[in-house]
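Below: protein 1.
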Amino acid sequence: MQAITVKDRDAGVAGLTLTDMPYPEAADSEVIVRVHAAGFTPGELEWPHTWTDRAGRDRTPSIPGHELSGVVVELGYGTTGLGLGQRVFGLTDWARNGSLAEYTAVEARNLAPLPVDIDHTVAAALPISGLAAWQGLFDHGRLTAGQTVLVHGAAGGVGSVAVQLAREVGAYVIGTGRGADRERALALGAHDFLDLEDDGLDGAGEVDVVFDVIGGEILARSAALVRAGGTLVTIAEPPETRPRDGRAIFFLVEADRARLSDLAARVRDGRLTPVVGAVLPLTETAAAFAPEKRIHGKTILRVVEEGS
C-alpha cells in the first residue's frame, strides 16, 4: 500500500514522503480500515510517539496522522461491535502507524459507526477536534449553562467545535483569535470576540472556564482570568501558571466510541458543523503540514475518492 512516512526527525515537513509500505496486520480486537479521508495535527512531527513505540524503541519509518474515516475491510480475532464493509471513523493509537495511508490497523473500540449521510471528509475532521472540545469543556472544565467560557483559537479545528458545543449547553462564549477570525467565530455561536493581535485579553473579564489550544504566553496570561473555583483547560502544553483559586488541567484526547457517535448525531441534525478548511490529496501532505500554510478550520487529506 502507499502511505506518507517520516524517517528523519531533523528533516521536518520536508521529510514527509509518499512510500510503499507493507499492508498492516489486524491483531486481536482490531480492524483494518481502508482509509477514505484522514486528519492530522501540524505539531505531531514533534511528538515523541511519532518516532518511538510505547517502549521507547525506534519505529521509523512511521506513518503520521491519527484521525480517519473509512470502511472496515478486515476483522481481527475477537473483534466485536463492527462488521465488514461498515463505514467508521475515529482515532488511531498515538504510538503506532497512523491514518495517512491507504490502510491502517485500529483497535475496534477507538472507532464508531459512521452514518451514510456524513461524508468521509467531514467525519475525518471530528475525532480529535470533537473529542478534545467535549472532554476539555465538560469532562475537565465542568462547564454548565449560565457560565462564561473563553475559547482560544475559536475559528480553528478544535476551537470552532468548542464554541458550538459551549453555546448549545447555554454558556456565554467569548472567542479569541486573529482579527480576520471575528466573523467566523461569531457565526459559529460566540457571543463576543477578542482580537489577540490588537486587543490581547483586555476586556475578557473573569470567566468560569478557559479552553486553550495555543499555549505559550496566551496560556500563561489566561490563568489570571479564571474566577475562584474555575478551570483553565489546555491541550497545548502543561501550564506553568495556575489560577489563584482554581484548577489548571492539561490533557490528552482519549478515544470514546459513545461520544463519537453522539458527535455524529449532532452533525446529522445540524447542531454541529465541523469546519473543514481544505481537502487535499494524500500527495500534498507536506504542503498541508507546512507551518506557513494557514487554513481556517481543519485540513483533511483525501485518500480515496467517494464511491471508489
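Below: protein 2.
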Amino acid sequence: MVSLKLAAVQAASIFLNKSATTQKACDLITQAGRNVANIIGFPEAFIPGYPGWNPFIADADPLKTSLYLQLFDNSLEVPGPEVSALQDARREANISAGIGINERIANTTGTLYKTHLIIGSDGSLLHKHQKYVPTVGEPLIHAPGQTGSKTTAQTEFGGLSGLICAENGNPLGQYATAIDYPAVHVASWPQFLNFGVEVNDLINAVGRAVAFSVGAFVIKSASVVADDEIELYGTTDEIRNFMRDEQKKRRAVIFGPGGNVITGPSANGSTEDILYADVETEAVKAYKHTFDYAGHYQKPEIFAPLFAKQ
C-alpha cells in the first residue's frame, strides 16, 4: 500500500505571458512541495492560458489576430527553457506533475497543439500527450494531436496519466488510459466553456466517468478567469458580465476510484487555491476487484470488428 498526497490546482494564468505563468506554475509546485504533496495536476493550457476568445470575437476583427499572435509567441517549445524551469521546480519540490500547455513546434511559424506534460519528481520529462481532437472553436488554433493514444507514464508510485478537457469523456481515450493501469489521472479543464452547457455538471460527470472506467484517483484541475484576460477581450458588457460570473466559480475536485468525491469544489468566489487529498493506492486495486475495464471486465475481441476497415 502506498500513501499519496494529491494536489489539484485552481488558479489563473498570467494571461498570454509564458514567462510569468511559468514562474507562477513553479511557485505553485513549490507550495505543493512544502505541503508534502506527491502529485500536482494543473489546468488545461495553463501556460500561457486557454484561448477562450474564439466565440466572442469575429474572425475579421483585428483583435482576434492580435490575440492569436500573442498566444503563438508565448506558446512553449518542448524541450525549451520554460519546460526546463518546470522540471527544475519539480526536482526541487520532489513532486510529480501533469501540466497543460500550448505547444508550438521549433522552427515553425504556424500550427499549435494543446499539450499535457507529465514530469517526474526527479525532474524527468516522462511523457508528452497532445490532445486527440481539438474541441468546438479550438481547431481554428490547434491541430489534432500527433502523439498517438498513450496517456500514461510510470512513476515511483505507479502510473500517472492525463487527458485534456472533453477528451476525458472519449471512451477510447479512457480505454487507452486504462490499459496502462494508472493509479492517478489528471483531468485538465479551462477557465470556462461557452457552448450552452452548465460547466460544473459536465466536467463533474466526465471526471466521475474517468474515475469509474479507468479505476484511478482523478485530479480534476480547472483554471480561473483572470482580470488581465477580461481586459484583453471583454469588449462588451455581455462578454464582461459572462467572464466576471465565471471568475467566481471554482471547479477543481479530486475523485476516488469509481467516482466518489474526496474533496472539492471550494466555495464560489474563494481565492485561488490548491486542493489537497490524502489517499491510499490500495483503493485502486480494491476497485479493480469488480471493474477492471482493461482486464477481466472487458472483451476487446468482440469489439475489434467495429474498427476493421470496410
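The chain is about 30% helix and 25% strand.
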